[in-house]
Structure formats: C-alpha cells, structure tokens
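Title: Prediction job returns without error message
Component: structure pipeline
Severity: low
Priority: P3
Assignee: unassigned

Description:
Job completed but the reporter wants confirmation the result is attached to the right record. Sequence as submitted:
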Amino acid sequence: MCSSDLRIELITNFVIGIILLYIAYGFAQDGIMKFISKGSTQFSLSSLIIIIVSIVVKEALAQFSFWAGKKVNSISLISDGWHHRTDSISSVVILIGIFFGKYFWWIDSVLAVIVAVIIFITAIKILGSTFSTMIGEEPKPEIIENIKKIAESMSGINEQTFHHFHLHRYGSHTEITFHMYFPRKTSVYNAHNAVTKLEDKIREDMSIEATIHIESK
C-alpha cells in the first residue's frame, strides 16, 4: 500500500467518523424534540415494507464490508461496515417504534436517543482508531523482543540501545519507529550502516517497515 493510499484511508475513516457524529446528533435532537412535543410518527404499509427491505440490505452491506475489511485488513472498509450497521440499527429501532408507538407515545423519542448513543460510541471508536494510527501506538512486548533478538545477532548493537517505540498500522502495511543510542565515538557512517542493516533485517524477518532514529550518548 503506497503512502497516498494510506492517507486516503485515514481521511476516509475520519470523514465516516464525523458523518456518524452528525447522524448521532440528528437522532438525539429529533428524539428530544419529539419527547418535548409528545409527538409520534405515523407510517403507511408501503413505508413499513421499505424499512424492512432497508434493514436487510444495510445489514448485508455491513456484513460484506466487515468481511472484506478483515480479508484485506482495511480500516476504512470496516468503518464503512459500521456506517451500514448503524443505518440498519436505526431502521430496526424505527420498526420497533412503529409496532409499539400506539401503546407508548414516548417510545419513538427514547429509541431515537438510544440510537444516537450507539452511533456516537461507534463514531468515537472509529475516530479513536484513526488518531491512534496517525500518532502511533505502543507495540506489543513480543514485537519489541523480536527486534531486540534480531539486533543481538548483529555486531555493534545490544538491547540497551533502544527506546521510544511507536507502531503504525495502515491496513496490511505496518511501520515501526524507534530510537537507538550509539556511543559518541561511533562514526556517523558506522551508525548509519548498522541501522540500515537492522532495518533491512526487521523488514525481512517481521514484514515490518522500520525507521530508526540515531542518537548518541
């Protein structure tokens, strides 16, 4: 995956998250206004059929997006699946309101607020995942340990020289950045040569693109 594709995926994720926040706000506002006015919505038989078809179609699209997203490890496809899922949940809630609205005038309002909360939580998770990808996350201990083992097998590097690890995941592409200390007497050429070899070895053994920052002590 090239850098432009990565940027597009992050932007898509961010846009979907913002759209879901806006949808959540709309549901909450509508529910509160209906509760204040004690209003309810009337639906015809044709509207009922359309809602049921919408539930089936949207859930099918959600399931496909989840499947495709997991298959290619695409965050944006999974986020799009949640977008479809919130649409299907919204339609289910409307359907419940149709059947029980005549018994409880307030049910539309309450269900609208519940949907708003569900969509809001989903949006926050999507945005959180997007920001986590952009700023990086702490790698799992086994990843760090594997890097240290690789380094130990190479001359001039030991496990005490590493710090400040950050992992970035972009779909199926994974990058890691960290800092390495070298003794002050180490020449720039030797330090750069050692780092380049380590980056190549990490890429070969772990399928992770490494960027190592050189520091002296």
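Comment from assignee: result matches the submitted record. The two ends are 36 Å apart (CA to CA).
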